[in-house]
Amino acid sequence: MAAILAAPAGTAGAQTSKSTLITGASVVDGTGAPARPASVRIQGDRIVAIGELKPLAGEQVVDASGQVLSPGFIDTHSHHDHGLFKQPDALPVTSQGITTIIVGQDGGSELPLPRLFARMAKTPVAVNIASYVGHNSIRAQVLGKNYKRVATAAEIDRMRAIVRAGMQAGALGLSTGLEYDPGIYATKDEVLTLAKEAARSGGRYISHIRSEDQYIWAALDEIVEIGRATGMPVQVSHMKLAMTDWWGQADRYLGVMDRARAAGVNITGDVYPYEYWQSTLTVMFPKRDFANRESAQFALDHLAPADGLLLSEFSPDRKLVGKTVAQVAVQRGIDPAVALMQLIAESQVPGAEEMVIGTSMRADDVGKLIAWPSSNISSDGQLNDRHPRGTGSFTRVLRQYVREQHLLTLEQAINKMTGAAAAHMGLADRGVIRPGARADLILFDPATVADRATSENPSAQSVGISRVWVNGGLVLKDGKPTGTRTGQPVRRAVAEK
After folding, report:
1. What is the mean pLDDT of residues 344-355?
2. pLDDT band with cut points at 50, 70 and 90 for residue 494
3. What's the pLDDT tens digit per position in 300-338?
4. Which of 123, 127, 67 is nearest to 91 (CA)?
5. Over the stretch 2-31, which tens digit does the pLDDT of each residue have?
6. Which of 196, 311, 415, 480 lies at a 20 to 30 A Cα distance from 57?
7. Number of C-alpha atoms within 13 angstroms, CB side, residue 497?
8. DSSP 255
9. Element (H or E) spanning 161, and its range?
């Protein structure tokens, strides 16, 4: 496994060598080990000691009595980079305990990747950022508007070169979004060829698989085969059963994953703790036959009902934002299938944007996917969004699955948000509390930590996280940003030839 290096970045709020001692906390170290009382000393951007420690002369001491000290949470599937440089304090992120975001998801990434890291140097932010290099972005660059076809051998070679450049720039690996344009038109051979290119540099593969509903079983087989053929770690993004026909079949889903792992495929997955997704209306039409009434009715009958499709963005008519497809149908005096087709047709003009929140999962399936030993937590969220996952995913897990439902112990939940997440991304020096690790730490009250964001109020800030340190810098205190922005680019180390 390639090591991951954090490159120096500028800060707003100078980092000093003065140490900080955190005392009285119940330390949950991210490994899954039981909580234990201990003091933790940080100096610079590192944890330097843990145990029974006495304050040093002049040392800042934080009394954490009654609170849990854990590693900062790692969001392994994040879109929080969207607008981040306009909101560098990243309050929706830090207030739920996230200290590192993994971007370049669903096949979409910055190209060239160094541009993202250069922006961090110019405009420091409060969280660390690592990135995949995105297949959709690469395919769009190479094939342009003529992408609804099989790529030629020469085009695949050009795509391989871009993957190689991204890996040399420190990308974690290759990401795909195979339900989205233009990746949906890529053959399995194209994807496998590019995955092999990333694997040559010690990279990983993460995927919004080719189907999360109608063709989910074939889509799982495809990512398993990529893991088998390349030998690289592979991760299923935002695991879900988003079709009524498959409700209650989480065991079947996890059986596919477990059999692959037993056969030597290093496959993992991430999950966000909601029964509703957010994507485009078009994602429900895998054949891209948007004017086909039969396909529209199938989507409403099997994927998400009309009253479970809430428009979260619709630039052709922003008055429709917040309405369901069912409500639009009533407003227009048409049936829901026609309304769905009309909305898509209206959004196909250049520059138009549409997004929908679809309720199409079952709570017990979500719980089983979260509890799977090889899953970790993600948000799939943004800083400003109608879906509450961008502001509340991690604190929701602590409230709902730990404190209320007891699906996970506190140690298991924190492991899924820290140590396991770091391992799944190949991050060697984050996600655990131990001497030498990066000082990404959070303090929270396990009795009160909670999400407050809802679909009606998606920006409501989480509560219960009292302090957040990123690379030793205190970026959040008592629910408010401090102005310190010590986030760093996190690059995969480039192996010497």
Report:
1. 94
2. low
3. 999 999 999 999 999 999 999 999 999 999 999 999 999
4. 127
5. 444 444 444 444 344 689 999 999 999 999
6. 480
7. 3
8. H
9. helix 153-168
What contacts 145, CB < 8 A, 6 or more positions away? none
Residues in a beta bridge with 470: 473
Nearest CA to 191 out of 213, 211, 175, 212 is that of 175
Q: Are strands 267-271 and 234-236 parallel, antiparallel or unpaired?
A: parallel
Please state, in angstroms and rounded to a whole number, the distance separating the CA atoms of residues 295 and 65: 58
pLDDT at 7: 43
Q: What letter represents residue 442's amino acid?
A: I
Phi, psi values for residue 134, rounded to 5°: -95, 130
Residues, the chain: 497
Taking alpha carbons only, the member of 335, 449, 447, 460 closest to residue 385 is 460
- The residues, any chain, with a CB within 8 Å of residue 115's CB and separated by 6 or more, are none
Name residue, tokens 């854990």. 70
Q: What's the pTM? A: 0.95
Relative to beta strand 19-27, strand 60-63 is: parallel
Listed residue (471, 468, 435) closest to 8, CA to CA: 471
**CA nearest neighbour of 109 among 129, 125, 80, 132:** 132
